[in-house]
Amino acid sequence: MSLKRKPKKRLIGYARVSTTSQKLKRQVDALKAAGCSRIFRDKASGASTHGRPQLEKALAELDDGVCLVVAEWDRATRSMWDGLKIVQQVIEVGGSIKVLDFPSLDLDTPEGQGFLAMFSAMAERERQRIVARTHEGRRMAKAAGVKMGRKPKLTPHQQRKARDRRAAGETCAAIARDFAVSHSTIARLG
Description:
By secondary structure, the chain is of the alpha/beta class. It folds into two domains: 10-130, Resolvase, N-terminal catalytic domain (Rossmann fold), CATH 3.40.50.1390; 156-187, no CATH class. It contains eight helices and four strands; from the N terminus they run βαβαβααβαααα. It has a four-stranded parallel β-sheet with strand order 2-1-3-4, sandwiched between helices. The termini are far apart. The model has no long low-confidence stretch (mean pLDDT 85).
């Protein structure tokens, strides 16, 4: 009796970080070690489900026999609905998904796909908690008298001088040159 082997699937990877200062290396190394022939990389905020052009390109490459590999599921999605949409797109074209941080899940089964949806919901909840903690921290800092935002470009004395010069009829551009700031900095002084 001869056992037929399933043809080996082509693996393509997807990695994402939220900011340009973050590095993709850890995810990319994991995807290379998993055998991905091509890796798509995005540097985009996880707050939005939009603005991930490389994920869209990766999903467009999927078909029967192609597997999308993600090092960490929350790098591909930040909401339950987004996760479900990705899973649905993959299934519709006959592709599959492999998530390296959930190696024991069989994502080719309805149960595995359900777990992936659950993990997407947990990622969405964590994102909401991060936003809430950030807002609470800002509120507490303001209540404690902490000044938020950038330091003003001009000292209070320079601001008064600039306002006096504007009142005397000088242009914002001329005043800005003297203070080595942009004309919009002077215009915002009122």
